[in-house]
Amino acid sequence: MISKRAIFEGRVQGVGFRYAVKDIAKGFDVIGWAKNLTDGSVEVHINGEREEVEEFLKEIAEESAMAHNIKNMYDSETELLQNVNGFVILG
Asked: Residues 44, 34: contact at Cβ < 8 Å?
């Protein structure tokens, strides 16, 4: 099990991006959350098996690149999330 934190930049706030990410999460065995950041980007934090997490992030990038005009995505491994069930939208 791994945990990743990903930052998506572009037109990702006010356009349903977090809800699209939550919908994509339904097709993967991952848990975590998505939230807007004050700089206009969206942070996604997920736990899961490495392959599931990598495929989940790839699917977000492919599904949302055109609709949400993602300019950049940065991700890094981080500590596992605790006390999270399912995939939720924060803030």
From this structure: yes
